[in-house]
Structure formats: structure tokens, C-alpha cells
Hints:
By secondary structure, this protein is α+β, with helices and mostly antiparallel strands. The chain has two domains: 4-98, Orthogonal Bundle (Peroxidase, domain 1); 102-175, no CATH class. It is 59% helix and 16% strand. It has helices at residues 4-17, 22-35, 39-46, 52-62, 68-79, 86-100, 116-130, 161-175, and strands spanning 103-110, 133-140, 145-150, 155-160. Strands 2-1-3-4 form a four-stranded mixed sheet, sandwiched between helices. Strand 1 (103-110), helix 7 and strand 2 (133-140) form a beta-alpha-beta unit. Helix 2 packs antiparallel against helix 6. The chain is elongated and about 75 Å long. The protein starts with a helix and ends with a helix.
Amino acid sequence: MDSSVSKKYTKALxxxxxxxxxxxxxxxxEFLANCFKDSKFAGIVNSPTIPKxxxxxxxxxxxxxxxxxxxxxxxxxxxxxxxxxxxxxxDELKKYLxxxxxxxxxxxxxxxxxDSKDLEDIKKEIGSRLGISLYTTQKIMDxxxxxxxxxxxxxxxxxxxxxxxxxxxxxxxxxF
Length: 176
């Protein structure tokens, strides 16, 4: 889930910590994002009945954070009731790092599973045309066809069976 809130917090975090500390921060956020997969942890952090000081104490007790800026950031999230944004901030920070390395996500949506060779061929072709490095993610969709989307570069193309059928039908009807 993309959240404009997490994008704003990620931007502020990057500005505060700088590029030197970004990898260590990413590790910390990855650990915390994985903690949210535990329903007990997520329940405690998201509970409105548990005091905020207990929530931040829990987070700071499970991971040793030496950077005061990261501690301040977590305190800010806690103060604004945004601790549940940590997994999204982690995703945004990871995406930011990949963009800094000129690496973007190619999302391939299709009604069928593509094999790894086909995905690799698509990735190489689009990456060479755009002059960027890509990593692929495949998603299955209900509509027959294939859609390609390069995240962060606003490049999208699709070939849908229904669209092709309609175009072919119109072309044939125009010929008569």
C-alpha cells in the first residue's frame, strides 16, 4: 500500500539522517517492519488503550538503536500515532535507495504465470530501451493479457485480449 503519509515521513527521515546512515536505518526499519507481521506486536503498537510511552519502550527494548536521530524519528511517529506506518516507510526507503542507484521495479501483470526466462527477456529489453536497471515483480490479474509498469518512471503498456479483439473487429468492419 502506497501512502502519501509514509512518503512524507520517508523524505523527512532521509533529510534528517543523510546518506551515510541510510543503510543502517534501512536495517532497523526492516527489523521493525518484520515485527509488525507478528499479530501480538502489531496489536500492542496499534492499540489505543496502551499508553504511548509503553509502545515506544517496547520498540526500543527489542532493538538496539544507537543513532539519536532514529530514536527521535520513532518518538515522533509514536507521538503522532503513526507507528503503524513503519512497514510502509521501510518500503519507501528501500524504493528511494533503489532509485538512487538508478534501479526501478518492473511490474508484470498477466492472467498467466510467466516463466523466469520470459521475465528476464522482458526485463532486459525494457531496461535497455529506458537505460535503467530493473528488478521484476509478477502479479496475476483477472483480465486476459499482459500489462507492464515501470514504477517510478511512469512507463506503462498493456496488451489485453479484449482490447485486441475489439480493435480487430473494428478493423474488419471498416474494411466492409
